[in-house]
């Protein structure tokens, strides 16, 4: 059997029929060869010496008492007892004893007791009379201190001592002795009283706490705890509690019971947090009742205050009254902060009621006023209150700000006040800004928005946020990456010696926080953030920060771009390639030189992701524009891998291109999904600057088959007429990369939704394209309209971003076919 070590005290019964403590150790049950049987061994905790070696006899009567005590007679006048610290340990050893004796562990006694044994067992600790307390006199203090400290390790004796102290009104007598000792300056007596009172607290009995923490006793209890023998000089806790700590009533509290509870809670909390030493491993549960005492006091205080609506209304009225002076307002805000902190002790249901009461009384408008104040302390306390509210119910805060937006200017909206506080944080480490950023993140997180049937909260709030608040959040970012700075940057070719970012560490920290929030938006707010990035050309501005001398900020900018590319959204990819937005990233990589650091690894990871995910448009753009600069980087195979992918794709497209006429000549053909994807990749933009896309004739299975050859021949005639003029243009490789040629069956074509798209196609010509491609586009467009819907235009409208987003569930889905 495995050894089970448990902490126990070993007792033996002496000639006077009193139990003697033989020491504390760890018990195990094991087979002892010498005794030829399973035995109980107790090794001393201090030096490992053997305190007890007792064979478990099959015929001995063992008795379990009060869950933590096992008692038996070893010989006629030799009784033993093991007092366990934990019930679990007692149960385990009891099972071993019952196993040896073949008994069910649920029994309390393993054998029928003979009369003499019964007498012995009746006098065991469990049934022995209450502990006899020495008389409460000065010369007995040492004896009392020894008694109190000796019982702490035995749960049974702790119970008995607590009962004795309670029954005899002993604590009040001890505290009278304390006053005598203090008057006589009897240091030795005061040191004993410290041990006694501390020991009584560790008895962990609520009934004793009620006595000790009553108004008449608590200051004397604190007084006793000042005289720690380990200190050269006593502490002055009473002086602090009576003179330094002032009870501030922001509004007079008329209920005397409530006042008394507040005083008591503060003092008991002080005893627990300041006076009592940190409990050791074996003492950690001794103060659980003290913690509960404080907890229930707090619950009672919150409930009593909450029920007094007149009191709370008065507090709110003063908080929002312009006539209230700053000191008073500071006290009111601190009161609310503490009130909210206390409320965390409430049960969830009561906490809901508490915050609803605050909301009804107008906590949010009040916070809006105080968060904009100059006093740093007031703002900090208001932020803490705001964090309680956001944590409790982000939806409640969102609802308030959206209602407020209908009546107020953007400048004074609560969220904008919060953003302003974040931007204007004066702390060099931006402690407040970090906290506020976390709260903003919670508010704009779609995960905690209520999912109703029509999902209104998410769309309504995000519309509100991007219309009214986003410009405030991004203002510092845009101001620090402004156009004139970007031009200067272009002139100096972003050399490190001419950094265009502010050198100020605090500003860099702030921009990093804003970028973290924007990166969160990219991940969670699909089309809202996409529109914003496009309209503000935000990624270009962010990438200016790649030149920052603060590497953490450059990494934040890179992380923002990495999140965008990670979405594998063709809409974003075209924005990046047309804006040549890889340039600042590649410049940063080259400027970093041969240094093997986080920036180097992060940039390479970005390109590796593009290679592994095979994002064709980006691969083509990178290889065509930057391969010469990157060719020399050979310590990773990433850039060679990109070139290989690019060449493979080019070959594949050339093969496809050669097979296009044969495909077109077939009036019926079937392709698998992979072929469809490859075909889609072939038709895209005719030219980098040209938004209008080429027009192709797909097969419409829903139409009469007879119509198709006729329409197709008209198209082919037009096509042949143009071939002599612009052979080069079918298809022309874009500088953004690759041949784009798309065949697709369109849902809208199949449904016959032809009117709108045909008109749109006819209207779409691109002045930015070359003459050849422009005239070709126009001719193809004519062909489309002439065939009354048999042919389909693939068109990209530069301004129609919303439609694009709805269509764009995947990058491949983007080209729209209409008939």
TrEMBL record:
Membrane-spanning ranges: none
InterPro entries: ARM-type_fold (IPR016024), EVH1_PP4R3 (IPR055236), P4R3-like_central_dom (IPR006887), PH-like_dom_sf (IPR011993), PP4R3-like (IPR051137)
Biased composition, class Low complexity, residue ranges: 746-755, 766-775
Region (Disordered): 681-819
GO BP terms: DNA damage response
Serine/threonine-protein phosphatase 4 regulatory subunit 3-like central domain boundaries: 143-648
MF (Gene Ontology): protein phosphatase activator activity
UniProt family annotation: Belongs to the SMEK family.
Protein's UniProt name: Protein phosphatase 4 regulatory subunit 3B
Source taxonomy: Eukaryota, Metazoa, Chordata, Craniata, Vertebrata
């Amino acid at each position: 059997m495995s050894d089970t070590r448990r902490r126990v005290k070993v007792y033996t019964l002496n000639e006077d029929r009193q139990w003697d403590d033989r020491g504390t150790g760890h018990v195990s049950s094991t087979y002892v060869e010498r005794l030829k049987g399973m035995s109980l061994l107790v090794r001393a905790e201090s030096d490992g010496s053997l305190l007890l070696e007792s064979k478990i006899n099959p015929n001995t009567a063992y008795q379990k008492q009060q869950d933590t005590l096992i008692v038996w007679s070893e010989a006629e006048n030799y009784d033993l007892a093991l007092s366990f610290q934990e019930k679990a340990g007692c149960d385990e050893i009891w099972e071993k004893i019952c196993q040896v004796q073949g008994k069910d562990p649920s029994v309390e006694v393993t054998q029928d007791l003979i009369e003499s044994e019964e007498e012995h067992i009746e006098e065991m600790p469990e049934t022995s009379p209450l502990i006899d307390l020495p008389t409460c006199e000065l010369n007995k203090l040492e004896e009392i201190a020894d008694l109190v400290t000796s019982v702490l390790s035995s749960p049974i004796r702790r119970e008995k001592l607590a009962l004795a102290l309670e029954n005899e009104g002993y604590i009040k007598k001890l505290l009278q002795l304390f006053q005598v000792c203090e008057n006589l300056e009897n240091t030795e007596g005061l040191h004993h009283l410290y041990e006694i009172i501390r020991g009584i607290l560790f008895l962990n009995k609520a009934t004793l706490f009620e006595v000790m923490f009553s108004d008449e006793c608590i200051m004397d209890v604190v007084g006793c705890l000042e005289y720690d023998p380990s200190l050269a000089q006593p502490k002055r806790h009473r002086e602090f509690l009576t003179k330094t700590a002032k009870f501030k009533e922001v509004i007079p509290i008329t209920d005397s019971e409530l006042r008394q509870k507040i005083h008591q809670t503060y003092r008991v909390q002080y005893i627990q947090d300041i006076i009592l030493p940190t409990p050791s491993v074996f003492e950690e549960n001794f103060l659980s009742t003290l913690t509960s005492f404080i907890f229930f006091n707090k619950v009672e205080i919150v409930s009593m205050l909450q029920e007094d609506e007149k009191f709370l209304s008065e507090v709110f009225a003063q908080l929002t009254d312009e006539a209230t002076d700053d000191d008073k307002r500071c006290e009111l805000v601190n009161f609310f902060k503490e009130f909210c902190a206390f409320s965390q002790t409430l049960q969830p249901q009561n906490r809901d009621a508490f915050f609803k009461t605050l909301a009804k009384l107008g906590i949010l408008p009040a916070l809006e006023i105080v968060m904009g104040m100059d006093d740093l302390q007031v703002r900090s306390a208001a932020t803490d209150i705001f964090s309680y509210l956001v944590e409790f119910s982000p939806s409640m805060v969102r609802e308030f700000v959206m209602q407020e937006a209908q009546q107020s200017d953007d400048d004074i909206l609560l969220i904008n006040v919060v953003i302003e506080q974040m931007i204007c944080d004066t702390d060099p480490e931006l402690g407040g800004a970090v906290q506020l950023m976390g709260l903003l993140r919670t508010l704009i997180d779609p995960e905690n928005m209520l999912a109703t049937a029509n999902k209104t909260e998410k769309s309504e709030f995000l519309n509100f946020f991007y219309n009214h608040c986003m410009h405030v959040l991004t203002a510092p970012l845009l101001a620090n990456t402004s156009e004139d700075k970007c031009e200067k940057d272009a002139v100096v070719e972003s050399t490190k010696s001419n950094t265009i970012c502010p050198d100020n560490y605090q500003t860099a920290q702030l921009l990093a926080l804003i970028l973290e929030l924007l990166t969160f938006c990219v991940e969670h707010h699909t089309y809202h953030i996409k529109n914003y990035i496009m309209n503000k050309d935000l990624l270009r501005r962010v990438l200016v920060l790649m030149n920052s001398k603060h590497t953490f900020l450059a990494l934040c900018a890179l992380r923002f771009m990495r999140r965008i590319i990670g979405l594998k959204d063709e809409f974003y990819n075209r924005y990046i390639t047309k804006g040549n937005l890889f340039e600042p990233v590649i410049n940063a990589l080259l400027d970093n030189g041969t240094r093997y650091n986080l920036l180097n690894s992060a940039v390479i990871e970005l390109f590796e992701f593009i290679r592994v995910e095979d994002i064709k448009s980006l691969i083509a753009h990178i290889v065509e524009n930057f391969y010469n600069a990157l060719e020399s980087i050979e310590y990773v195979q990433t850039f060679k891998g990109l070139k290989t992918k690019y060449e493979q794709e080019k070959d594949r497209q050339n093969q496809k291109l050669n097979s296009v006429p044969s495909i077109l000549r077939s009036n019926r053909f079937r392709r698998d999904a992979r072929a469809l994807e490859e075909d889609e990749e072939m038709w895209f933009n005719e030219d980098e600057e040209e938004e209008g896309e080429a027009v192709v004739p797909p097969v419409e299975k829903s139409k009469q088959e007879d119509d198709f050859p006729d329409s197709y021949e008209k198209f082919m005639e037009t096509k042949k007429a143009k071939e002599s003029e612009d052979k080069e243009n079918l298809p022309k490789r874009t500088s953004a990369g690759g041949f784009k040629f798309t065949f697709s069956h369109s849902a809208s074509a199949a449904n016959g939704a032809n009117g709108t798209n045909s008109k749109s196609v006819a209207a779409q010509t691109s002045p930015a394209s070359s003459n050849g491609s422009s005239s070709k586009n126009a001719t193809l467009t004519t062909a489309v309209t002439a065939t009354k819907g048999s042919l389909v235009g693939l068109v990209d409208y530069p301004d129609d971003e919303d439609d694009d987003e709805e269509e764009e569930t995947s990058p491949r889905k983007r080209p729209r076919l209409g008939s």
